[in-house]
Amino acid sequence: MTDYYKDFIKASELKAFDKNHRKTINFNISKYDIAVSKGKLQYKNLDLAKERAANIKHRTINDLDKYIIEFEANFITRGGRIIWAENQDEAIIEIINIMKKYDARHIVKSKSMITEEIDLNQHLQERKIESLETDLGEYIVQLAGEKPYHIVTPVMHKSKEDIAELFHQKFNLKENSTPEEITDFVRKMIRGKFTSADIGITGTNFLIADIGGIAITENEGNALMCVSFPKIQITIAGIERIIPSLKDLDLFWPLLATHGTGQKITSYNTILTGPKQENESDGPLEMYVVIIDNGRSEVLKHEKQRRALSCIKCGACLNGCPIYKNIGGHAYGTTYSGPIGSVITPYMRGMQEFKHLSFASTLCGKCAEVCPVKINLHELLLYNRKDSVKLGYSNRMDNFVMFVWKKTMMKRWLLEKSSIKMKNFVLRKFFAKPWGSKREIPIVNSKSFNRLWREQRGASK
User: Final residue of a domain: which of 234, 268, 294?
Assistant: First the structure.
């Protein structure tokens, strides 16, 4: 059995003290911060826009069954097909069955975090089916044999020099290839794949209930080509992706663009409402939407934490989080990293295995501050911690330390009478390991804060 906690601690320490990694991620996030600051200028009242978006998503999540059924009915009316999958295994079986039905051997795929969540590429490759990522960032990650580092920008952890070296090794491009040269190379190589692919696979940003539509927003146009050329198209979506109406897009698309990349609106915005109709000249002949639960209902069960399902996957909380900025995305050991991942992963993949993510936070509140749908992420992390203790997943030492801490903090005389020597001994004995080997344990002052406060007040009189 994988010890996710130990892996997290090991990976976190490795990345936190990797100067090159920190230099790269800090540089890339600094560019993001500048772009987002400019993008937010399009709003006269950003907080009002966020409040409206939060209310819509909160209402939708609370009536999720109603909106999902409405989407299904409208999508089927236009000839689309809906497949429901309770978990990863069911989703993979259903997708593989579609591959077998059409004898598909070559797949083109646009960026999608939910396909990463269910390890779709790995399962297709095991069955000798080529699954090609057509988003440039995702293609680089696929080429490097890695997982996405970030919800929006999967190669945020790589510099342009790292990427040039990768393409030199894989394709013998010159060692100092520029981003423009690499982009041109990939464009020419992938372009032919679109026209010859058997099936196109996409994710979705939003499922639109009132029209049975699939809304996709992107900057490269590759998702649109994954839909336009192959005769069969599959969209994979989590149950939480639903929004009530087409009218809501004028609120959500700009918010997503601004908080995701600092743009007013992304370059390509597409709404799909089913396969090609009789009076239409192009589009897929068959269109499937695979709607996946995969642990989301477990999040939905918890009245407080269900707010996290309002997430529109903009990545703003990752870019603002001081923990993410130090340890990066891969250290989390899960598809969804950063604050949002730390809230939902323990319920989606198991509290016992992933409770540690909820403790990997400073609780500074920056994530909630930058969230475009006002998710109180730092508070939800506290609820997660409480649930993990209630379920009995805290160890004996944690329980003992908290018991002693509680008793001591509730009785001032224990704080005042305990010797400085004893306090420093307790810190060294019980806190040295979690404090980390690269930091010195602080030394307790000879006078308590309470005593210093009283002395200062007395001296000021």
Answer: 294
Please work out, in degrees rounded to the nearest 5, the angle formed at the alpha carbon of residue 220 by the alpha carbons of 215 and 224.
45
CA distance 324 to 332: 9
**280 plus 319 within the same structural domain:** no
Q: Is the domain of 195 the same as that of 275?
A: yes
Q: For the segment 382-401, what is each residue's pLDDT rounded down to a tens digit?
A: 999 999 999 999 888 778 87
Q: How far is CA 198 from the centre of its chain?
A: 29
How far is C-alpha 63 from the geometric centre of its chain's CA atoms?
A: 23
Q: At what angle do helices 249-261 and 19-39 cross, to 10 degrees?
A: 140
CATH of the domain at 385: 1.10.1060
Helix (H, G, I), strand (E, B) or coil at 132: strand
Q: Compute the distance between CA of residue 3 and CA of residue 1 in angstroms, rounded to an integer.
A: 6
Instruction: Give me the DSSP letters along 377-388.
Output: HHHHHHHHHHHH
Enumerate residues 6+ apart whose C-beta is below 8 A from 443: 424
At 461, the amino acid letter reads K
**Position of tokens 């306090």?**
423
Element housing 358 (H / E): helix 356-359
Please write the tens of the pLDDT for every residue from 166-209.
999 999 999 999 999 999 999 999 998 999 999 999 999 999 99
